[in-house]
Specification:
With 99 residues, the chain is α+β, with helices and mostly antiparallel strands. It is built from 1 helix and 4 strands; from the N terminus they run E-E-H-E-E. The strands form 2 sheets. The protein has a two-stranded antiparallel ribbon with strand order 1-2. A hairpin with a 5-residue loop joins strand 1 and strand 2. The longest helix has 13 residues. The radius of gyration is 20 Å and the shape is flat. The model has no long low-confidence stretch (mean pLDDT 77).
C-alpha cells in the first residue's frame, strides 16, 4: 500500500509504503499458527484498572509495541509480488520476516 503524507500547508512531506499480506486466502490450521495481535479499547483498560483499584490488586505494565513487527519466521513462506512491483511474472517473493 502506498500513501503520501502532507504538511499542513499542503506540500508533500514524505512517501510511505507498507507491505500487506493477503490473510484472507489462508486456511486455518494449514497455512498459519494460532498467532494474533489483539488490540484493546480504552474503555476496557479503564474498566480493568477500576476493578484492580477496588480489589487492591497490584498492576504490572509491559510495553510490547513492536512484538510482531520484526518477528523471525521458521517456515518457508512465499508470496506473490505486491502490486506496483514490476518483476518477472514467474518470480515470487520469499519472506524473511513476519508481516
Amino acid at each position: 500500500m502506498f500513501n503520501i503524507k502532507y504538511l499542513p500547508d499542503g506540500k508533500i512531506e514524505r512517501f510511505k509504503a507498507r507491505l500487506c499480506a493477503k490473510g484472507f486466502s489462508q486456511v486455518e490450521k494449514v497455512d498459519f499458527s494460532e498467532t494474533f495481535s489483539p488490540t484493546t479499547r480504552y474503555d476496557t483498560i479503564r474498566t480493568i484498572l477500576a476493578i484492580a483499584v477496588q480489589k487492591k490488586l497490584k498492576i504490572l505494565q509491559c510495553d510490547i509495541k513492536t512484538a510482531f513487527l520484526h518477528g523471525d519466521i521458521k517456515e518457508e513462506i512465499y508470496m506473490e509480488p505486491p502490486l506496483g512491483l514490476h518483476i518477472n511474472a514467474n518470480l515470487v517473493c520469499k519472506l524473511r520476516k513476519s508481516l
